[in-house]
Amino acid sequence: MPTTPYKMINGLSEVIGNYDAVILDLWGVVHDGVTPYPSSIPAMEALKKAGVPVALLSNAPRRSSVVTARMEDMGIARDLYGPAVASGEIAYAQLVARSDPWYAELGRKVLMVGPVRDMSMFEQQDVEIVKTIEDADWVLVTGPNDDHDPVSKYEDLLHALKSRDLPVLCPNPDREVIRGGERIICAGAIAGRYEELGGNVRWEGKPFASAYDFCLQAFDKGPDAKLLVVGDSISTDIAGSNNAGLDVVLVTGGIHAEELDAPRGTLPDKGKLDALLEATGRHITYAMGDFCW
Fold it and tell me: How many CB atoms are closer than 10 A to CB 102?
């Protein structure tokens, strides 16, 4: 089996001298949706002390302001990072502008699938939130209504949506995440099933180019800046970084920890990591067991 050229590292301090700035994923890297990982805040403090600017790019289906407020609640100080871009903010900007042809064709009446915590997506918008498929012009999927729902719970709903060919907006391409140690589905799992049924889905967030364009515009580091991305998901963080041509660190102790048989803070067997990269057709620049300095 051909191997992918990358370096195993124990912390960012080993390589950060080669970079001008860092783009951080959040869930699975900085926190687990409930609390920060023990090494993440010290790592962000070390980056600040070293004078390395940090931007956040998260597949969170809500406004960026909600994401930063939640991080402050977790004890992650706002002065540890610069721009914070949530995929929900990218979708929100498109919904407000309605200049993209796909968004321009959406009507006013929207059916939402997802928890109440994602209602920020409707702030200051001329939309009517409806309760039935029959009344809807389009559908916003931000996640399961309940964290413990399986995708199968939405099968009948998705078939009903398809019978009307309703467009679905999904501002979180993640299929699953680990929240407080428990694996749960995300919006991408539900929207992905709708797409399998032939449904019309518009994706916003990693790994799509629009997410990186939005983040880089906010970051404004210039075309010659050497950027390093830190993420834990092959399908979103690594794929997106590969598509954008950016160097990337895979935090192996995140969503792939069980698959790699390497708990957070430990480096996996190189053969297992090589096999994962080979199977997914992705490449990384570095691998480390945890986001740490």
Answer: 12
Q: How far apart are the two ends of the chain, measured CA to CA in Å?
A: 32
In a domain, 223, yes or no: yes
Give burial (CB, 10 Å; 0-12/13-18/19+) of 114. Answer: buried
How does DSSP assign 93-122, residue by residue?
A: HHHHH--SHHHHT--SEEEEES-GGGGGGG
Give residue-wise pLDDT tens across range 74-96: 999 999 999 999 999 999 999 99
**Residue 18 within any structural domain of the chain:** yes
Give the closest residue to 293 by CA, choosing from 42, 62, 29: 42
For residue 207, say if its preceding peptide bond is cis, omega within 30 degrees of 0. yes
pTM for this prediction:
0.90
In this structure, how many other beta carbons lie within 10 angstroms of the beta carbon of residue 18? 10
**Would you state the structure tokens that stand for residue 40, as one six-digit string?**
């993440």
Q: Which of 115, 26, 29 is nearest to 71 (CA)?
A: 26
Beta carbons of 193 and 151 less than 8 angstroms apart: yes
Looking at residue 23, the DSSP 8-state letter turns out to be E
Kindly state the tokens that stand for 10.
Answer: 């124990």
Average pLDDT over the chain, rounded to an integer:
94
Establish if 101 belongs to a structural domain. no
Give residue 271's domain range.
7-88+207-288
Examine the domain organization and report whether 187 and 245 are in the same domain. no
Do residues 229 and 246 lie in contact, with contact meaning Cβ atoms separated by under 8 Å? Answer: yes
Scan for tokens 């391409």, then name that residue: 173
Name beta bridge partners: 186: none
Domain boundary among 203, 227, 261: 203
Angle, vertex CA 68, rays to CA 67 and CA 73, nearest 5: 95
